[in-house]
Write a structure and sequence with these properties.
single chain, alpha/beta, Nucleotidyltransferase, domain 5, 2 domains, five-stranded mixed sheet, 10 helices, 10 strands, globular
């Protein structure tokens, strides 16, 4: 089954063709990073306009690279939630038009389910059930993946996502957008014990997380140093910050592995590219006797291949849409409006 998949939830326009949920025939991405870098972050209106300019040609490019005709596409899939609403709407409307014109099924895919499915492309042997830590710019959660389309959120951040904090701290330190990648590179040269930063333990749910206190403490430390003319050890601050994030994630993941009894742990999302978090998750999985599944760096960020992978299983479960499909800025991974 050849699925034409579209992803436009933020600042990457992406179109991919995925066969049977596991084989990527082509994955085309038009990045907007350089465009948004001058603003220090994504400008939603600019992102939406660039999606409109790129998406049609990108779909043609995907077909050409895959060596397929339009008639050989069996279904069209699209990220319908969550994301920047204008950006998501561009993808949804294009996918609806393509499905209608081709006379093919339309498959709606939740963006976070797509991130989880990126592991299916990297590891053909991976099958549910397994535990997945999702860490991205907008989401941080621990998910019990019971089946390809049946999931339970065990814990989530109660405020900021880990990725959002990486980017904000990186931006305040004067690092180029996206700040998370630059911060990770700097942290590798620093002492992670030099700065004492908080590790929050919010609420009664042992799997829930909070990063707003860590972000505030880091920003206050930076601003205070600037005000009094104190020189900061930037690599060590980056290393200390990254360690605090990892120290928040790892114990909860280990607890969740014990609770579920799973011996398979996956990590997904843009922050899954962070070298410290990758290393700490590997150590945690080894400690718990679990197999770790980490997607390659190219599948950690937003891409359409992950949408095509999840779409195959959504289709098999009967999750298809008609022309009334809408876009949503916020929606639970379970399909509920939030």
């Amino acid at each position: 089954m050849n699925i034409l998949a579209v992803e436009s939830s933020c600042d990457e326009t992406a179109v991919s063709i995925v066969r049977d949920g596991r084989e990527v025939l082509t994955d085309c991405i038009a990045s907007q990073v350089e465009l948004h870098r001058i603003y220090g972050g994504v400008v939603p209106e600019i992102a939406s306009r660039k999606h409109m300019e790129s998406i049609y040609a990108l779909a043609d490019q995907a077909l050409q690279e895959a060596g397929l005709t339009r008639q050989e596409i069996d279904a069209v899939a699209v990220t319908y939630a969550p994301g920047l609403i204008g950006a998501v709407l561009v993808g949804v409307n294009f996918a609806k038009a393509a499905a209608l014109a081709l006379g093919k099924p339309l498959i709606p895919v939740h963006h976070i389910r797509g991130h989880i499915a990126a592991n299916y492309l990297a590891y053909p042997e991976l099958k549910p059930p397994f535990l997945c830590l999702v860490v991205s710019g907008g989401h941080t959660m621990i998910v019990d993946v019971k089946d390809y389309t049946q999931m339970e959120i065990l814990g989530t951040t109660l405020d900021d996502a880990a990725g959002e904090c990486f980017d904000k701290v990186g931006r305040v330190l004067g690092m180029p957008y996206p700040g998370g990648a630059a911060l990770d590179k700097a942290a590798q040269q620093g002492n992670d014990k030099k700065y004492d930063l908080p590790r929050s333990r919010p609420g009664a749910n042992p799997y829930d997380m909070s990063f707003s206190g860590l972000k505030t403490a880091s920003l206050n430390l930076i601003h205070h140093a600037q005000q009094v003319g104190e020189e900061l050890d930037i690599p060590s601050l980056c290393a200390s910050f990254t360690a605090a994030v990892s120290d928040t994630l790892v114990p909860r993941v280990e607890q969740a592995l014990i609770k579920t009894g799973y011996k398979k742990l996956a990590v997904a999302g843009g922050v899954a590219a962070n070298s410290r978090i990758r290393a700490d998750m590997l150590a945690a999985a080894k400690c718990q006797g679990a197999e770790l599944y980490l997607p390659p760096l190219k599948l950690c960020g937003d891409n359409a291949a992950m949408i095509g992978a999840q779409a195959y299983y959504e289709f098999k479960a009967g999750n298809v849409a008609d022309m009334s499909l809408n876009a949503y800025a916020t929606k639970s991974i379970l399909g509920e409006q939030i």
